[in-house]
TrEMBL record:
It is found in: Cytoplasm. It comes from Algoriphagus iocasae. InterPro entries: RNaseH-like_sf, YqgF, YqgF/RNaseH-like_dom, YqgF/RNaseH-like_dom_sf. It comes from the Bacteria. This is Putative pre-16S rRNA nuclease. Residues 2-100 form the YqgF/RNase H-like domain. NCBIfam families: RNAse_H_YqgF. PANTHER family: POLYNUCLEOTIDYL TRANSFERASE, RIBONUCLEASE H-LIKE SUPERFAMILY PROTEIN. Its EC number is 3.1.-.-.
């Protein structure tokens, strides 16, 4: 079965998460520079079978777009153009960063480590986005 990949797009860094082959679990993958996202995905898709890309959609609590929403929609268009055979899904990502931080705290991550490894927050956020998507299926 093909995997599902999730993207937590940022202006500088992007967090990635992927399902196991049975599509039951969301696993944090890595954090990469946003500028290299499409190249990274091309390489990854050449090695792994992926049929769905879940993209976190940042919106305000009142349901309105925030400053990152247009960038996510632009990336969605690029993904559709670059990978026409892949299904692109948008999912509300409100509170994922806070949930990721709480998850890191509950796993025993020290404050110093959380500060030094901000990239961990991005990939854990992507995993939360992906797990939320899986639970809705």
């Amino acid at each position: 079965m093909a995997r599902i990949i999730a993207i937590d797009l940022g202006t500088k860094r992007t967090g990635l998460a992927v399902t196991d082959p049975l599509r039951m679990l969301a696993n944090p993958m890595e954090t990469i520079e946003t500028s290299g996202l499409l190249a990274y995905l091309k390489t990854y898709f050449a090695k792994e079978e992926v049929d769905t890309i879940v993209l976190g959609l940042p919106i305000r609590l009142n349901g309105k777009d925030n400053e990152m929403t247009p960038k996510v929609m632009e990336m969605k268009g690029k993904l559709e153009q670059e990978f026409p055979s892949k299904k692109i899904e948008l999912i509300d990502e409100r509170f994922t960063s806070k949930m990721a931080m709480q998850s890191m705290i509950s796993m025993g991550s020290k404050k110093k480590d959380r500060r030094e490894k901000a990239g961990n927050l991005d990939k854990v956020s992507a995993a939360i986005i992906l797990q939320s998507y899986l639970e809705r299926q």
